[in-house]
Amino acid sequence: MKRVILGTLLLISFSAAQGQEGKWQVGKGTANIDKIKADILKLREDEAQAIHNKDARGLCNLMADGWAGTTEMGRTIHKAQYCDEVTDGDVTFTSVHRDEVTFYVFGDDTVEEWWRDTSTMVYKGKTSHGPRKCSIVYSRVDGRWMDVAHMTSLYTVEQ
To answer: How crowded is residue 155: how many other Cβ atoms within 10 Å of its Cβ?
Structure first.
């Protein structure tokens, strides 16, 4: 079960570079939104590539030292464990789908990305699929954009 939950966090990063760019909500005090968009989209692409290549070191270099993630089961996972798990090769994605993607920009140093995830992943024969609500927080650390936190929660679709 632990690895299925960790795999869900992998899915967040992997799916972050998939699909639509999303809507951008820009707050006051943001000086160069075009540069911020380009930097964040590049970081998302680099994270997805590192996960695809099972490059834990490359992935960890994109994440802040204090990085933490919360799984859909409410557990907290930290950077070192996450980076180790990304290389195990036991997670496969049978489908990747995101919608309702929105980026919230706070000044020039913080961006939060939210989306609804209906992807399906398999870890050692156990399937986990959406819908989920996911979030990644990006922040400028020492002048460089980094991934600082992930969050996933189960998402009940109201009818």
So the answer is: 15
Within 10 A of 8 (CB to CB), how many other CB atoms are there?
26
The pTM assigned to this predicted structure is 0.81
Domain boundaries, the chain: 2-154
CATH classification number, 2-154, choose in 3.10.450.50, 3.40.190.150, 3.40.50.2300, 3.40.50.360: 3.10.450.50
With a CB cutoff of 8 Å and minimum separation 6, the contacts of 37 are: 24, 103
E-strand spans in 1-155? Answer: 23-26, 63-70, 76-78, 91-95, 98-106, 110-117, 120-123, 126-129, 132-141, 144-154
pLDDT per residue as tens digits for the range 66-122: 999 987 778 898 998 888 777 676 666 677 788 889 999 999 999 999 999 888 877
CA–CA separation, 135 vs 147, rounded Å? 11
Q: What is the DSSP string of 71-106?
A: -TTS-EEEHHHHHHHTTS--EEEEE--EEEEEEEEE
Tell which residue, 150, 153, 157, has the closest CA to residue 12: 150
